[in-house]
Specification:
- One of its GO terms (molecular function) is guanyl-nucleotide exchange factor activity.
- With about 280 residues, this protein is mainly alpha-helical.
- It folds into two domains: about 30-240, Dbl homology (DH) domain (Dbl Homology Domain, Chain A, Up-down Bundle), CATH 1.20.900.10; about 250-275, no CATH class.
- The chain is built from nine helices and two strands, in the order αααααααααββ.
- Strands 1-2 form a two-stranded antiparallel sheet.
- It is flat, with a radius of gyration of 30 Å.
- The relative contact order is 0.09.
């Protein structure tokens, strides 16, 4: 064995080094190809879900709203406003967004698509989802009242069949915008994972991810504030012979409430319930 080792040709080590370099190069190339393939998959998933979503919005606007407006005996304008909220505005906005997204999509080499700028360009427009999400609980209540009557159940099912919509109930369709606005940050986080820092779209994707996360947080915060205001309004109405100014004129959040003992100068004590709001006690 020692003799064989000693008789190894001088250029053998050079050949081994070259082979090693070649293996490393191939490995790196494979990693890059895998990353490109994963980025392609994520981009294609974003495009596909966007097109399906537009189809859902179209079906709601043309399949349900248009038909409901024809039946004035069954629905009042106020009812339709409660059930569908501003979904027509969302449909209009999303069509524009998808059109711009399609322009940025590279069909031949999807992994080279630069879609980050599209989200940044439209980030302010996504604020319209706030109104829809805040209204959604009221829409569910109104719809559930109507669905107790057979004629409304049959009507909505007839609308679905007429529009050739997939087999999902109307409340399922109306939930899609709420789900959609929450899904954007997840999709962008996945895309960022497979976008290298050298990629021309990296900084835009990173900024788009933060922007869409902020949109989702803002919507949740507004929803929480509205629920808090509603809670105060119901609390004030429940108090018999309420005196003094309206709490909501100054405050919008109940921070704490509890029992306290009030002691007068004469030393008499009384149990009182105190309510601490964000701007008054």
């Amino acid at each position: 064995l020692r003799v064989n080792q000693e008789e190894v040709p001088e250029n053998c080590s050079n050949i081994q080094d070259e082979e090693q370099d070649s293996d490393i190069s191939k490995h790196r190339q494979k990693i890059a190809e895998n990353r490109d393939q994963m980025r392609t998959n994520v981009i294609q998933e974003i495009m596909k879900t966007e097109r399906v979503y537009i189809k859902h919005l179209k079906d709601i606007c043309e399949g349900y709203i248009r038909q409901c407006r024809k039946h004035t005996g069954m629905f009042t304008t106020a009812q339709l406003s409660t059930i569908f909220g501003n979904i027509e505005d969302i449909y209009k906005f999303q069509r524009k967004f998808l059109k711009d997204l399609e322009k940025q999509y590279n069909k031949e080499e999807p992994h080279l698509s630069e879609i980050g700028s599209c989200f940044l360009q439209h980030q302010e427009g996504f604020a319209i989802y706030s109104e829809y999400c805040n209204n959604h609980p009221s829409a569910c209540i109104e719809l559930s009242k109507l669905m107790k009557q057979g004629k409304y159940r049959h009507f909505f099912e007839a609308c679905r069949l007429l529009q050739q919509m997939i087999d999902i109930a109307i409340d399922g369709f109306l939930l899609t915008p709420v789900q959609k606005i929450c899904k954007y940050p997840l999709q962008l986080a996945e895309l960022l994972k497979y976008t290298t820092q050298e990629h021309s779209d990296y900084s835009n994707i990173k900024a788009a991810y933060e922007a869409m996360k902020n949109v989702a947080c803002l919507i949740n915060e507004r929803k929480r504030r509205l629920e808090s205001i509603d809670k105060i309004a119901r609390w004030q109405v429940s108090i018999v012979d309420w005196e003094g100014p309206d709490v909501l004129a100054r405050s919008s959040e109940l921070i704490h409430s509890g029992e306290l003992t009030k002691i007068s100068k004469q030393g008499k004590s009384q149990q009182r319930t105190f309510f601490l709001f964000d701007h008054q006690l």
